[in-house]
Structure prediction request, 603 residues.
Amino acid sequence: MKEGKVKMKALTKTQRVSVLRTLVCTLLFILPAIAYAQAGIKAEYYKAGGSKPDRAAVFQPGNLLLTRQEFRVDVDWGSGSPDPAVPADGFAARWTGEIIAPASEDFTFYTECDDGSRLWVSSSPIDPANPGTPIIDNWVDQGPTEKSSKAVKLEAGQKYYIMMEYYENGGGAVARLRWKSASVAKEIIWFLPSAYIKGTLNGPDGAPLKNVSVIASGPPEGPFSTTTKSDGTFSIRVLANRDYTLNTVHELYYVEPPVQVKGVAAGATITQDLIASILPDISLATKDLPEGVAWKLLPTGSAEDNSPADPAFDDSAWQTIDVPKNLNPTPVGTNTYFWYRLKFKLPSEWKQYSDRYLVLWNYNLDDYDWAFLNGHFLGSVRQWDARRRYIIPAAWVNFGGDNVLAIKGYQGGGGAGINPNAPRLHVGNPQLGAIRGKATISGTGAAAIGVTLTLTSPANPTFKRTTTPSSFDGSFTFADLPPGDYTVTPGGRTVVSAKPETAGASIAGGKTAEVAFEVSTIPFFETVAPDPVLSTDFTKPLDPAVWKSEDINTKGGSSEAKDGTLTIKADGADIWDTADQFHYVYTKISGDFAATIRVMSVP
Prediction:
């Protein structure tokens, strides 16, 4: 290669002005699409306590629990906390950072918090000891509440300093910081460079899919997500200069394989369309069942009897019923247990999925349900308007023959039964697995009520989920887990020991893993001699000088102690809302006491 020379000539004044104007205009054009801040936001968490704590007393070095860098104030901790080092209640936070104004306009700032918040914005550095007057001052106990500032004039390209303080007294915990102007839609303020990934999500047939969550995962700060519009389009705001994996979060749709997007630059907009696969799914509504297959109903039952869950149970005398359908006032009365059963076969083509778990989902049952497939307990939900979702291990399914779905219900008032949505069944997602397990009391086999199961991942120190075992048999489920290794640990204030202390589980896509624990807990009550006056075995009438009985908003109730049983009768309708009607038996006790009562049945 020959050596060359390059001649350079100085720009004229007019040319320099033209170049500078072009550069400034270009920067102003792209600023709204890129990050408004440069280095994240500093988050400090402090020990606090009580309602409306004094900021001068709280934000002291001796109360500091945790300092870390974050990129936005947009959190809903629920009943949890920001970090194990921070308590769930009685803490405060201070965020300090810088933003670059994207436009010369009036901006309105918004805090949405549970509980209190204050916000300062200044063109000069803010002294936490003497910050001046906040533009938002909402330092009160409250549920999630949004407060707005007066208009604040910002100049494009200029740096501004932000400080937000927050406290959490008790209950839920929410903190969010937004802004809005004529050219900037109301949005969360980000304090790190950002970019956008947009595209269209289509189904296997090429039709656009609406109202489906699209997720960009990968960086520890994520994942980031959005929901597709009616035409299937989506736009996800993400942190810049990171790699992402795109997929859907949906009961039936998934992207196979997930799409990789590498190194999205600050201010860039990457277009990436997605095509979703759909999981095989069937409806168990009466109108969709094959000829000769029908739901059966037994409009009575009890708390203790679960024999109809046995696949061999004879339900030939049960009545046929449509699903979904409201069963109240007939044939199911108020405060009544009842049973559904359905014997059915899976589609023949599902045999190819015989190593995959299934998901029973979609249905409502008013009020409580206990679901079983082929005699195996799936789960229970005590909420009338919740849609159920239960994981079924492949080993519990008969892919080539009859399956029996048995659902026990309880009706406490109002509507009853499977209504308005019928059960559906789909094949498990090949990209996700699940852990099913049991936690029982050592020596008795009873459900370990009060125990918390914590799921962690050795590969991801920030990953954590918790659940509690069912009161029916101690079973629990961790669903929708990416493949990998996990650790389950039982714990809680009542736990003395557990065997094993922890259990490992390796998850593969479309599969379930099993774990089991025997737990020893502290006794609920100290063993003390019973009070001879107050205690009774119900073999003789109650002493009227000690025990009283009374009707509430009704007449005709009674109580009787006989043959070791206390029977309470009432002609009231219910214990519900503001119209309680019942009969009760009581005695007055002063000071500390322990009561042990066994309820044999609730008609």
